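Our preliminary data section would be incomplete without showing what the modeling component actually yields. Below, a chain of 115 amino acids is followed by its predicted structure, encoded as tokens that our downstream tools consume directly.
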Amino acid sequence: MKSAFTAALLAAVIALPAYAQEASKPPEPFTEDFLSDAENINAGQEMWAEQCRHCHGRTAYPGKAPKLKPYKYKPEFVYRRVTDGFRKMPSWEEVYTDLERMQITAYVLSDDFSP
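Predicted structure:
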């Protein structure tokens, strides 16, 4: 009985990362044109100021949320974190559309980003 349970649990754990990673892929691959488009960056900046700055902004330190290091991030990583959440950060999948989450990503990775 233990071995059947252990095998089932192991199979679920192995499958989970693949499912989670697949579930949070952007609907279209990020392109340099998308990431550098001023409209996308400005739209992402507005959403950032409206929602994200509360926890990730300069006045939120120390404590509320980790300080972001966008120079280390790839677009898919940022999109996945915004979509799925991480630790205490909630998922924004039900709040923002795919495009809006992609625009937030564009802003976070832009030279205009200011937490």
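The radius of gyration is 17 Å. The chain has one domain: 2-108. Preliminary results of this kind motivate Aim 1 of the renewal.
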